[in-house]
Amino acid sequence: MTYAISVLTLGGITVILAMGLNVQYGWAGDLNLSYYAYVALGAYVCGVMMLPPPNASEGNFYVLGLHQSFFVGTIVAVAVCAVVGLVVGSIALRRVTGDYFAIVTLSVTLIFYTFSDQYAPLFNGPQGIYGVPHAFGGVLRFSYSGYNLFLLGLVAAVLVVVVFLFEVLYRSAFGRTLRAVRDDPISVSAFGISPYRRKLAAYVLGSAVGGLGGVLLLQYVSAFSPAGWSPLETFLLFSGIIVGGVGSVWGVLFGASVVLIGVPQAVLFIPAPAGAATFLPALQNCIIGLIILVFLYLRPRGLFPERSPVLGFDGALKWQSRPVRFVVGRVRTLLGEGAA
Amino acid sequence: MTSSQGGAAADAGLDAGDGCVLEAQQLKKRFGGLVAVQDCSLSLRSHRVTGLIGPNGAGKSTVLDLLSGVERQDDGHVLLRGESIDRMSTHARARRGLIRTFQDPRVWPYLTTLENVLVVGDAKSGYSGWAAILRHRRATARQAANIQRAVDVLSAVELEHMRDRRARELSGGQARLLAFARLAMANPEVVLLDEPLAGVNPILADRLLELIRGMAERGAAVLLVEHNMEAIERVCDSVFVMSEGRVIGTGTWEELRQSEAVVEAYLGTGARV
Lengths: 340, 273
Ligand SMILES: Nc1ncnc2c1ncn2[C@@H]1O[C@H](COP(=O)(O)OP(=O)(O)OP(=O)(O)O)[C@@H](O)[C@H]1O
Ligand SMILES: [Mg+2]
Description:
The structure holds 2 protein chains of 2 kinds.
Chain A: H1 2-27, H2 35-50, H3 70-95, H4 98-118, H5 120-123, E1 129-130, H6 144-171, H7 173-183, H8 185-189, H9 195-221, E2 223-224, H10 233-244, H11 249-267, H12 279-298, E3 310-311, E4 317-318, H13 322-335
Antiparallel strand pairs in A: 1-2, 3-4
Chain B: H1 6-15, E1 20-31, E2 34-45, E3 48-53, H2 60-68, E4 75-80, E5 83-84, H3 90-95, E6 98-100, H4 113-125, H5 129-134, H6 136-156, H7 172-186, E7 190-194, H8 202-217, E8 221-225, H9 229-235, E9 238-243, E10 246-251, H10 253-258, H11 260-265
Parallel strand pairs in B: 3-8, 3-9, 6-7, 7-8
Antiparallel strand pairs in B: 1-2, 1-4, 4-5, 9-10
The complex binds adenosine-5'-triphosphate and magnesium ion (MG).
């Protein structure tokens, strides 16, 4: 039970992360390799907001240490990620596109990673931050397992909000324009839309969601250190997007769940050779890499390719997407046709 | 330079210069060693369809790129309603009513036909990421109005039955019709068309020409790049002829037919109908 809760919590966080990356990659078409830097930044910032001032005699150093609540920490962390995203995006997206953008973002990650690892006064260097207080620990006095359940609920709630929000955005003029920008930015600008501003908005939105995911990740492990993540983490998220369907909210929800929760669990059934602790994680990454290759070759637009909402004359949206049709159908049956 | 002044002069008399909406002054553009456009001056008037013809590689599309800001000129100026727009981005020019099509239709392949047209409507109604969430009802109402218009525009070019198909599934000619529908949705004041009829069947081509005329009649200034001389003859009030990056003649179609230099540079090369 505890194990299942833990798997689902981590899985839910990973799916939230994939959602944010999908806005940048799937909607705006920007291959952002720095995504995980925002996840880490969100985690670090929330951590140093919540922790008490560092205890130098124990060899701990980090900025801030304001002993704030989880709520304040989250808001600050998400805001910092959004602002950093705005600054980086407004530099990187203005001129560089395509492969160059990807390379610039990769450099950003490497710089941030090196800094967080080597420059101890920032986030305690290689040791990282640890012992982060539980979310709402002061108000809700949970037992250990009670807290885990609470965290799962929190992650699920955030996931629902993110999916709902992105679904609305996807169907809105914003989502539609963004997908047009992805397909051909120059012809979009010929109709009076600045592709740069739209891409920047997507970049900031994705960064903020990445930071939010980072905050949840921090709560899940109650610590964050350079050993716990690498710039390559972003690639795992890409696998969820590619399998599910680039750009598709429901596809990514599904793909990220299957690949990023399912595969790591399935791998555990494979007997590892004794004494090879790194065997299973390595195998897992190989399998995910293989899945990406197979999908790119056989089904590049994923299992649930991005759908276009079918628009009725009254402006009401009839949604074509299979998962939605399925759920809506079930709900209608439950309520009786009249109510629906 | 053999250019016939009659038509231009007659126009000038009619409009007293005020009808001139878009003006290019001595534009020059080079790509590396190649001078694609040189000393190119032309002007567009509202209520008029102006043709731009010339052999392949004459620099017509490049002129459209310079006028719309997709490329920057090395020399010369572009004036919109008398104001210099040299430093203005493509989207800023578009927001001032200057809309172009491309020689490739450049539709957005993963959007449906209807969505392709809707994006243009969205562009006119402004930024709506927040509105979709915070003022959902109003955004939906505006969307409904946009959809109604988009469907009308699509039926005008007989693409309504394709509305929910992805643009990448359209045929070459249909993609061009969609590009035209997007332009119509934008309801522009200055229209730059790069070979809108290429690959379109004759009956629909006639329809498009009517729509182009209609835009001019409602007050737009239209520049039409086209290799189909019959079409040029039918809709254009006046024509500019380009060759090797230069404007080598201007006037009405009838006048140009009589101009030796023009016939030699272009009409003599087999393009004549
Ligand atoms: N981006 C570019 N880079 C380099 N050369 C270019 C570029 N665009 C156009 N040219 C060159 O500029 C010249 C004019 O090209 P342009 O496309 O304007 O011709 P055009 O009159 O539109 O021809 P067509 O009737 O075939 O469309 C050509 O010689 C072309 O090779
Ligand atoms: Mg051309």
